[in-house]
Batch of 2 targets.
Target 1
Amino acid sequence: METTQNEIKPRKSLANKLGFSGEGKSSPARYQIMRRNIIVLMFLITFIPLFSMAIINYFQYRASIKQEVITPLRLMSHKTAHSIELYLEERLSIIRALGASYSFNELSDQKKLNRLYRIFKKELDGLVDFGIIDKNGNQVAYAGPYILIGKNYAKQSWFHEVSIRGIYISDVFMGYREFPHIAIAVQNFETDVQDWFLRATIDTKKLDEIINAMGLTPEDDAFLVNKEGMLQTSSKFYGKVLEKYPLEIPSTLGTSIQEKKDHQGKDVILSYTSFLHRDFFLVVVKPSRTAMKSWNVLSMKMLLIFAGSVILIFISVLKTSNFLIKRIKDSDEKRETAFRELENSQKLSSIGRLAAGVAHEINNPMAIINQKAGLMKDLIELGADFAEKDRFLGLTDSILQSVERCKKITHRLLGFARRMEVLYEKLDLNDLIVEVLGFMEKEALMRKVNIELNLAEDLPNISSDVGQLEQVFLNIISNSFAAVEDGGHLKITSWDEDKDRVGVSIEDDGCGMNEETLSHIFEPFFTTKTGYGTGLGLPITYGIIKKLGGTIEAKSREDAGTAFTIHLKKNKFESEE
Amino acid sequence: MSNFKVLLVDDESEFVSTLAERLFLRGIEAKTANDGESAIRMVMEEKPDVVVLDIKMPGMSGIDVLKEMKKTEPQLPIILLTGHGSTKEGMEGMKFGAFDYLMKPVDIKELITKIQEAIKS
């Protein structure tokens, strides 16, 4: 039959829809997309809040832990700076008191100065020497370990400063003494004498002691720096006393905390505390690594929990979505199958009704034709001879034969449509199959068709209609015979499917059929047997199986063979009617 | 000519008239009726020996006509014609006292055999 491309296409899609095409055609791409969307959506829904919480917690914890480090650092720095300042102020006031207590003449007396020096050396911790300087800058008396009498300080900057301001405390310096010390000078006025200066130097050991009293860990460092950036006390990591401090010093007052990399590239927390009355800064340095140790531990734990949760979420999202997709796919397939079956049975039943109607309506005119042709024949036979008598007899005979053929067709049509009573009786399906094969024995022998029987020995008896099942198997087996070449193979298998059903399959290695044909085989009048065949064999088979509460399906590949699989109910059941 | 009379009942007048003619050619006298009412009337008037009755007719169905005829003429043999491949209605007719049933399109020889059997009974 010639069909155009346009006609084939919708029919093919119908074939797929009906699922007669051997394997169900699903659209994996659609499920892939659906799966991907579900995974992305679920992952985002769970991941975004988790991620935000983690980020917020991260910064919150970091800030509070840093605060825990910074607050004590700030306090300690402040206290220590204050102690140093107090120490210096105390030294200054003692020197001032000393200067005010004695006159120039008394103190220029070397002996007296020596005595005072010995007393004060004991009481005044870190005192190095005393010097009395007249208004011209000449050292007139000196008590201490060095020989500095007669030295002139008039050109030195501290001398100018003390002349103007009355007091002077130097930064740490080496000077003639070759070790770090601080000079404190006070100006004294006497009415009868010109003003003069008392100058004391103290070493910086006490400053180191105060700084050490902070109780820092070995990784930490603390030292004094002046505003020019010269180290006033020795540091562990940032140079010796009077060396240049490698980092920049902030200009702010009070305590400022910085976090940065030092000159060696180490991450450090720096605390700069400025002095109230001096251009000194107390610098405390803590390496971030140790300072934030607890933070590092915590953040590592947080990271682990976060990563663990993400992995858990991911796995469960993956599992859940796979499960969901599988369920959706299953239910889609089930629905599609149910839909296909419904569509097919509806189609067949409406075709059946139509066929029955046509058969009924055709039957009456057929009866009339039959009678008229019969009468014609009667008249010809009984009448006198005439020239074309035999010819007419032949014609009426062929009309009657055609009517007979029509009768067969309508009879079978009605058989297809009719809902016969089902006669239930106990039967052995294996016996029934063997019996049916008996009808075909002759043909099988003649055509050398090899029949392989795989009948389950423990197949339970079922309750069904023997006559109708015989017709079913006869139809299918004779179809298989028609499909195979001489010497072909036929395989009949029976098995116990489950507690309600048994199964039988009939496979041949014959010519098979294409999807198009396969999708129509249960429709009445669809036949490939040109010339003979009513196209009602399989539709009737289908109808019987349905009526008996079973299922029948066909799978076929062109030039490879066809397999029919039948499932039948074991137990007696109520008729559909 | 036979000594008995057959009444053919079918809504298809062409069918019954042809059949009647064919029976007549074979020496059987046959009357025809095209519906149930006239058939029942003719049973009274003509007193046929056998009735050949189509089951499927508009108006009164063959089964109704059968029941009606059996009321007045319980001994009258009635042969049913079933239009269907189905034998169900034929069997049902047998329950109501039909002699036998034949399937349409009917073979003339078969019909005559049945008619003769009915007469003899």
Note: DSSP finds 13 helices and 16 strands in chain A.
Target 2
Amino acid sequence: MNTLFCTLAQSGWPEPMPTGTLFHYLVISAAMFVIGLIGFVTRRNLIIMFLCTELMFQAAGLSLIAFSRFHLNHTGETFVIFVLTVAAAEAALALALVVLLFRRKESLDAERWAELRG
Amino acid sequence: MNNVIAQLWPEIALFVTTCLVMVVGLSKDRGTRKLCAPISAIGIIVAGYLAATTSVDTATTLPFMAKYGKVLAAGVGLLLLMLMAGTADRQLEDAVDRGEKFEPLRSTRAEFYAFFLFSLMGLMLCAGASDLIFLFLALELTSLPTYVMVALSTRRDRSMEAGVKYFFLGAMGAAMFLFGFALIYGATGSTALADVAYTIQNRAAGTGSIGPLALTGLVLSLLGVMFKIAAVPMHFYTADVYQGAASSVTAFLAFVPKCAGFFAIMLLVGCAGWAFGPDGYGSGTALPPELRILLWTIAVLTMTVGNVLALLQTSVKRILAYSSIAHSGYMLVGVIAGPGPAESTLASNGLAAVLFYLLTYGVMSVGTFSVVAALERRRRATAADAAIDEVDHIDELRGLWKRQPHLAAVMVICALGLLGLPPLLGFLGKLPLFTSALGAGEIVLVVILGLNSAIAAAYYLRLVSVPFLESGEPSTPDAVVPTPFPSRALAGVVAAVLVVVAGLAGGTLGSHAERAGTFRFPTKTMEATRHASQPTSTVSVPPDAAERGPNAR
């Protein structure tokens, strides 16, 4: 099996991808961040809003890894591990809060929670 | 590494306390459950003692801020802990009093105190952060527990709503400063704040500007952290969340995240340094022009919006929320002014002024919030639990002087302190902000700061006068009575005494802040640096510029 993969890799199949440069990674990461931000501002479903913040977190993670490769040190990759941990903690918290809210009002719409205005 | 651990003993002490509290709070025995607060208090005192006795020198541009920040966190944390009495599990304990069985599953006391201590620990870590990863984790540790504390603080829908609002906007702020940190790392190749500062300022010395990538990173991370201090583009949540949370938790929100945010802002802005002038790096004592404009705009907007909106409110907690926004704006003035000339005193060092103001603001805001927390509205008709509500409307403070003169006195002293009346602590805190900004040549900013302090007088004087007015129509079914938790009122009295006493003898506190605000120029020797590949060629700072610092006019 191992030899099969070696042969495949050496025979040029699958086609080698043109390697992305730092610029490509940064563009994708910035796009993810902006999409997340726009989604956060425009969407009203609590779960979707939470997913948008996750998207922003992962955008930062992507650029961290790209920069880590660019600078040839492991600091950025280390940072990403911590980011993932914090994102997981945040997800746990968000889902707990959303479930609590849903039990009270049977809705995930952020607009229905508007007792505090002024 | 050993050095880092040696500086973390206060946090380790708090962590051990947290573990204890989490177990003790679930005990079947009521007396044991009640031990949560005393244990937390002992933990905070021990942490404060450890922080005060260890000598700290973090590898950042603000090496002595850690010690001051940790002692400050412990001191104000103790006052906040006194306010927290009875916030968690009140209904549950009442039910147990009526003979129901204690259900550990429904109890939130253990979590509540544990999250309180975790958040305080995050604040301490923020003060001592020497690395971007460290700073990110510390900021998250400060804010994640506060979301839960808000949601748990009362059994009402509005607390839940406030918690969710706070959480979502907080997560967005966190994502923003995280993205900023990633870009800063990209621009400098390191996450150690000392290295980041050295690389950025070294490059600025060579090319005249700090570079677009580092600038974008700094701007994004500052905007993200603005959420923590409730500065204007990110202030929308403040009034709602402060109103929705229980008053004791609101006092916590007004101090702990704000303090952590300011530590982070000073560390981040310190990376760019206050050494820019008309001829680029080294020719003045200002921030890089782009950052200066950003912070200047935010400071002016924050002060003005906070004060003007506070005028329109009728809820005490909303007034205090907008006043807390305005105070963030005042403190940003100190950040813009910067450390001033080398060997600067409290009067000329804006960073020391901010650190001192954080202390004064913390004490005074705990005082004002304690008045609201020490009172509750109770329906006369029934004795049921559901009829107990928080005091919120400003008219509910009417006639307080006749009923609870000590609380009225606390309100008067602390509100006058927030206003900045001369013999009180608030004046002592505000003065260095003015003088340091004048020293940095920010005349317009000083004028706006003065005008805003005048606007603020309108609503602070309203808070001062309301307790002396006759109470409204006596036919209302509600009665405003003191809570059965005397430590809340005690916290207010302690804060008020501090505002008066420290206002008269604030010199020693000021000298601590003066030392804490010492700005050290980054040098390559601050931390052994091993990373090599820089995207642009680095030009070394001329040795005399590094020695003489930013005042080399």
Note: The helical segments of chain A are 2-10, 22-42, 46-71, 75-105.
